[in-house]
Amino acid sequence: MTDTVTQGVAQRRELIAFRIGDQEFCVDIMSVREIRGWAPATPLPRTPSFVKGVINLRGAVLPIIDLGARLGLSTSEPTARHVIMVVHIGERTIGLLVDAVSDIINMSDDLVQPTPDVASDQVKTFVKGLFALDGRMVSLIALDRVLPETEAEAA
Q1: Which of 13, 35, 60, 69 would give a disulfide with 50, using CB separation of 3.0 to 4.6 Å?
Q2: Contact, 146 vs 65, CB < 8 A?
Q3: Is the pLDDT of residue 120 over 60?
Q4: What is the mean pLDDT of the chain?
């Protein structure tokens, strides 16, 4: 009988919420290795516009992706208030530049709604779903789509 009960319960997960401009997004907490303050990145030639450059992270070269630019949102010049979320995507570790980390959310998968059909295909590429939280909409980001293979080699 316990098998039936556990199958009917939606899986709970912890997410890290962050802001880019006026919008709120989140990613699975298990993908986030650390959150650190902004450090100026060394630009690399001929990289996509959303690649800010690289930083030295304890002896390893870490590519920094401006997540706002990657999602097609407005970009701003990073300041001391911006943060870098160091995330692990597959076999790669990258830094995601965001405006601020705001919250840790504990929620169940059944609260996530699919991305609406009115959204462009590009939005659906990055946003796995949406959910309402305390009167605001939060987009769940598909981290595996942030750095496509062809652009991963450039970074």
Answers
A1: 69
A2: yes
A3: no
A4: 84
